[in-house]
């Protein structure tokens, strides 16, 4: 803030009329009406100090290992996502509607560059275009809102000021931690959402925090970045299972980055955006129950990251996380039907299919009509696994979705919602009961699928997924180079090798 403007603000704050008090109001009443927490006492200010003050020494080996896994997975699903129709549409829009600005790289596109904010947008869209990205608890997709923004900011920095790999990891963890802390302000955030898509709410905040840290903003600017991002947050769940859902991640990445850049230029916003202020909605507008807590960082002590205690879920196939329970349950029934021989199940063998799943309207889709609906359908995923023994990337192609055998099975599905099966990724289960034409009843149940945070993918499985995804657009040497680069990211003096290998 310029000094003359600062002086104006101080003089104005001593003027009762400027503050909106009626003439003649006693000074004691003016003081009571104007009383508010000092900046150092607010939740918002504590987050600003945390974002600005976190150091590499706070990153434990567990945090480094888990965040590298998140980065590798996010890059892989983003590269595969760059082959999708929704990504192509978003990229064409950015190229045709905005002036060329060859600064930041686009996933899987050699020679294609956009402005930093547009690159953050399209790469974020790519990450979520197949619903293949990571999921945390409380429920959100944390990486896609942060990593594309950080890579775009890194691209825009001069070559002699590129962040190191450790700088990138630290900023990434700032963005992940802020998302997790904000979601823990609400008990309802632990459940599968009904109103707002969580990455569109906490994602811009995480992206803003991560970019603010990477840009070395001061604590006040970091707080303003969060408040600016809050004005850019929120997308309705009605757009789940449509081509617009990936835009939620793209916008989270782009708008979080823009919030940090605007704060770096001096734009200010509410200093109480995260606090609970009676009569004035801030970030609590997104939650029915909201209990904010400060985020402290002791200067001479370590920090306990949420990711250290709450691991991440990585998906084995590209669909809503809830689908993984019913797929594993249905796959176990498939094995019972076909026995030791591999093969498919015929619809003529089946008389009835009963799914016992949580009550969640947007993933209860009896007859999905497109790939995005199919990725959000308990019925489709259970029947695909029952037919084929698994669900893969190819399960969502037009030919697979419109199979007559699949349609026949879908017509046999009934759904129940047991009271002991809540819509919560930490507590739910999936159960599939199949009655065969001869009368035999077969059951499969999954309480924790492989890839869930309680049963995480091994490094071998995660790398296999990455190689399959990234190999769809990159040559093998670049794929292997990315695996090695991410694994040694904390040792890189600057992040240029990572940026180059993504093209």
Mean pLDDT: 91
Q: How do the helices and strands follow one another from N- to C-terminus?
A: HHHHHEEHHHHHHHHEHHHHEEEHHH
Main sheet attributes: strand count, strand direction, barrel closure? 4 strands, mixed
| Shape category | globular
Radius of gyration, in angstroms, nearest whole number: 25 Å
**Strand order, biggest sheet?**
4-3-5-6
State the end-to-end CA separation: 40 Å
pLDDT < 50 stretches = 1-25, 28-35
- Helical run tally: 20
Kindly name the structural category: alpha+beta
What labels would you give this structure?
4-stranded mixed beta sheet; disordered N terminus; 7% strand; 503 residues; 20 helices
Descriptive account of the structure:
The protein is of the alpha+beta class and 503 residues long. The chain contains 20 helices and 6 strands. The protein has helices at residues 3-13, 27-34, 43-53, 61-81, 85-97, 116-128, 147-156, 165-183, 198-214, 219-230, 245-264, 306-309, 323-338, 371-374, 378-388, 398-401, 404-410, 459-470, 476-487, 496-501; strands at residues 104-106, 109-114, 350-356, 413-416, 430-436, 441-446. The strands form 2 sheets. A 4-stranded mixed sheet has the order 4-3-5-6. Helix 3 (43-53) packs across helix 9 (198-214) and helix 15 crosses helix 17.
């Amino acid at each position: 803030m310029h000094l003359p403007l600062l002086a104006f603000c101080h003089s104005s704050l001593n003027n009762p009329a400027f503050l909106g008090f009626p003439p003649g109001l006693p000074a004691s009443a003016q003081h009571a009406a104007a009383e508010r927490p000092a900046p150092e006492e607010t939740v918002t200010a504590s987050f600003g100090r945390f974002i600005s003050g976190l150091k590499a020494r706070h990153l434990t080996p567990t945090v480094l290992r888990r965040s590298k896994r998140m980065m590798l997975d996010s890059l892989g699903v983003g590269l595969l996502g760059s082959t999708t129709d929704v990504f192509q549409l978003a990229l064409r829009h950015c190229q045709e509607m905005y002036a060329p600005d060859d600064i930041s790289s686009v996933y899987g596109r050699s020679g294609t560059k956009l402005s930093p904010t547009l690159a953050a947008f399209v790469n974020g869209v790519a990450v979520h275009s197949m619903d293949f990205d990571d999921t945390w608890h409380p429920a959100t997709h944390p990486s896609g809102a942060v990593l594309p923004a950080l890579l775009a900011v890194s691209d825009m920095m001069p070559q002699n000021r590129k962040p190191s790999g450790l700088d990138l990891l630290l900023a990434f963890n700032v963005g992940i931690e802020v998302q997790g802390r904000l979601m823990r302000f609400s008990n309802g955030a632990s459940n599968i959402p009904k109103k707002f898509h969580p990455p569109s709410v906490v994602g811009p905040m995480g992206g803003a925090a991560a970019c603010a840290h990477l840009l070395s903003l001061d604590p006040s600017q970091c707080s303003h970045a969060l408040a600016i991002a809050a004005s850019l947050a929120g997308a309705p769940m009605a757009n789940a299972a449509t081509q617009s859902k990936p835009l939620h991640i793209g916008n989270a990445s782009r708008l979080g980055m823009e919030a940090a850049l605007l704060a770096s230029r001096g734009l200010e916003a509410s200093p109480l955006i995260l606090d609970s202020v009676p009569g004035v909605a801030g970030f609590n507008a997104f939650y029915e129950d909201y209990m904010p807590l400060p985020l402290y960082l002791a200067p001479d002590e370590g920090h306990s990251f949420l990711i250290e205690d709450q691991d991440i879920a990585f998906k084995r196939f590209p669909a809503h996380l809830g689908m993984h329970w019913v797929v594993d349950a249905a796959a176990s029934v498939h094995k019972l039907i076909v026995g030791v021989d591999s093969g498919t199940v015929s619809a003529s063998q089946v008389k009835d299919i009963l799914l016992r799943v949580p009550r969640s309207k947007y993933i209860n889709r009896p007859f999905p009509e497109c790939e995005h609906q199919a990725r959000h359908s308990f019925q489709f995923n259970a029947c695909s696994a029952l037919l084929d023994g698994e669900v893969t990337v190819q399960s969502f192609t037009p030919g697979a979705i419109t199979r007559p055998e699949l349609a026949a099975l879908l017509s046999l599905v009934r759904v129940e919602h047991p009271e002991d099966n809540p819509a919560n990724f930490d507590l739910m289960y999936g159960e599939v009961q199949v009655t065969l034409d001869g009368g035999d009843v077969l059951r499969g149940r999954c309480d924790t699928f492989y890839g869930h945070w309680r049963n995480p993918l091994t490094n071998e499985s995660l790398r296999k997924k990455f190689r399959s995804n990234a190999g769809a657009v990159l040559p093998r040497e670049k794929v292997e180079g990315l695996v090695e680069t991410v694994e040694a990211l904390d040792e890189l003096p600057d992040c240029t090798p990572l940026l180059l290998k993504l093209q």
